[in-house]
């Protein structure tokens, strides 16, 4: 049976259309394509037409109708970097950091990622599913319709698979679309601290082939940072993933300049993420090779660190996307709208650029731009309606949830 839905009378429809084949860079990051007094018609989960209210309403009749008077319609927001599936919280470490301990000191003392690994290993599938589902519900309430989710708190084959299977189950059962990334190389387990090579070999020989065989991930990510994985180890792990069809991503230059951006460019990664301390050369390399810079200002905010140089990156020609980095240690939030505020206020981005960075560029960063990230005929009808009179208000009023309605694949999921 045909299901049709019509959104009418929107103060603004921000379509993001026209970024075909490649993410937006430089001036194109400001091209939102806004229709004043706009409408969207969708059928069987797909967008059929977007345009002026009168044109669309005279051409199409629908079973269901949403009046978006005084509101802004955008593509469903996309979060391209999260550590969604994990157990527990780390507010104790937050209190320690407020007294002066650093993130890396806490991790080196056996806390940090190791603390969440212990909790995640101890959790059952069901417990992980329930905790992650609650977070995903919150993403949806904040207007996010696609979320990338990484493993990396298992650190053994059994527990990495458990995390990825939870992602797979959520993908089948939750309204939000999930894109899965294997991140076995998130930390060197404490027991292998003195023999990191053994763990690197285990990721390469044991984990990557099994994850690929079970088709549990599309991407392979590595925490390339001093004291975690060296650029040389990261390269081997990412090359091994490539042989099994996993596309490389890198947690790059988060704490210090470490050659992560350069590695991302030379290995053909789809994205380099964090980049707080990316070098001049690294930024140049990303721009030249078209690697997307996924910036996570929530992490800089929460770790009280310097923010990534988004302005410099965009001006240099890097396609920038934004994400929450949702995780219990360095960015305990699911609010992508708040990340948009930080993008403007702390990284020198414009309101237009942050919208591009959380829609079409975010879609490119996780390989789903052919079906999400813009409102265009043929794409999935993933749509967020915000109760604001214009898109500028989204990155102006902060710490508020302006979401009014969320439509996922043509179905009303938040009202
Ligand atoms: O992206 N940097 C490494 N991984 C996460 C943090 C994970 C954690 O602290 O639990 C990040 O910041
Ligand atoms: Fe991360």
Automatic annotation (TrEMBL):
GO terms for cellular component: cytoplasm. N-formimidoyl-L-glutamate binds at residues 153, 327, 329. InterPro entries: Amidohydro-rel, HutI, Metal-dep_hydrolase_composite, Metal_Hydrolase. It is found in: Cytoplasm. It comes from the Bacteria. Its EC number is 3.5.2.7. Binds 1 zinc or iron ion per subunit. It holds the Pfam family Amidohydro_1. Its main location: cytoplasm. Zn(2+) binds at residues 81, 83, 251, 325. 4-imidazolone-5-propanoate binds at residues 90, 153, 186, 254, 330. Keywords: Cytoplasm, Histidine metabolism, Hydrolase, Iron, Metal-binding, Zinc. Pathway: Amino-acid degradation; L-histidine degradation into L-glutamate; N-formimidoyl-L-glutamate from L-histidine: step 3/3. CDD domains: Imidazolone-5PH. One of its GO terms (biological process) is L-histidine catabolic process to glutamate and formamide. Its cofactor is Zn(2+); Fe(3+). It catalyses: 4-imidazolone-5-propanoate + H2O = N-formimidoyl-L-glutamate. GO terms for molecular function: imidazolonepropionase activity; iron ion binding; zinc ion binding. It is an enzyme of class 3 (hydrolase). Fe(3+) binds at residues 81, 83, 251, 325. Belongs to the metallo-dependent hydrolases superfamily. HutI family. Catalyzes the hydrolytic cleavage of the carbon-nitrogen bond in imidazolone-5-propanoate to yield N-formimidoyl-L-glutamate. It is the third step in the universal histidine degradation pathway. PANTHER family: IMIDAZOLONEPROPIONASE (PTHR42752), IMIDAZOLONEPROPIONASE-RELATED (PTHR42752:SF1). This is Imidazolonepropionase. It comes from Halobacillus andaensis. The gene is hutI.
């Amino acid at each position: 049976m045909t299901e049709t839905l019509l959104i009418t009378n929107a103060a603004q429809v921000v379509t993001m259309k026209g970024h075909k084949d490649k993410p937006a860079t430089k001036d194109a990051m400001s091209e939102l394509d806004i229709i004043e007094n706009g409408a969207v018609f969708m059928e069987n989960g797909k967008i059929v037409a977007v345009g002026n209210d009168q044109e669309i309403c005279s051409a199409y009749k629908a079973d269901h109708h949403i009046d978006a008077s005084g509101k802004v319609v955008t593509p469903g927001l996309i979060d391209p970097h999260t550590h969604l599936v994990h157990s527990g919280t780390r507010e104790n470490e937050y209190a320690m950091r407020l007294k002066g301990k650093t993130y890396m000191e806490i991790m080196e003392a056996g806390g940090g990622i190791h603390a969440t690994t212990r909790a995640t290993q101890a959790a059952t599938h069901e417990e992980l599913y329930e905790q992650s589902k609650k977070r995903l519900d919150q993403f949806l309430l904040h207007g996010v319709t696609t979320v990338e989710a990484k493993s990396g708190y298992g650190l053994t084959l059994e527990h990495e698979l458990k995390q990825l299977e939870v992602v797979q189950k959520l993908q089948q059962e939750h309204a939000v679309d999930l894109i899965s990334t294997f991140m076995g190389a998130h930390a060197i387990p404490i027991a292998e601290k003195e023999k990191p090579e053994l763990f690197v070999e285990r990721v390469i020989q044991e984990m990557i082939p099994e994850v690929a065989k079970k088709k549990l991930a599309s991407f392979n990510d590595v925490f390339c940072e001093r004291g975690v994985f060296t650029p040389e180890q990261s390269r081997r792990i990412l090359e091994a993933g490539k042989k099994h069809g996993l596309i490389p991503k890198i947690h790059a230059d988060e704490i210090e300049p470490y050659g992560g951006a350069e590695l991302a460019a030379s290995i053909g990664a789809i994205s380099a993420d964090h980049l707080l301390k990316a070098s001049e050369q690294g930024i140049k390399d990303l721009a030249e090779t078209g690697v997307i810079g996924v910036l996570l200002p929530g992490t800089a905010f929460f770790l009280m660190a310097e923010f990534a140089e988004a302005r410099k990156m965009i001006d240099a020609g890097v396609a920038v996307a934004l994400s929450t980095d949702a995780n219990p240690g360095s960015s305990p939030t699911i609010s992508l709208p708040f990340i948009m505020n930080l993008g403007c206020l702390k990284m020198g981005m414009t309101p237009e650029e942050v919208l591009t960075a959380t829609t079409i560029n975010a879609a490119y960063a996780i390989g789903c731009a052919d079906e999400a990230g813009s409102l265009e005929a043929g794409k999935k009808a993933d749509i967020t309606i915000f109760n604001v009179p214009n898109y500028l208000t989204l990155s102006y009023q902060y710490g508020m949830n302006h979401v009014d309605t969320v439509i996922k694949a043509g179905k009303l999921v938040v009202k």
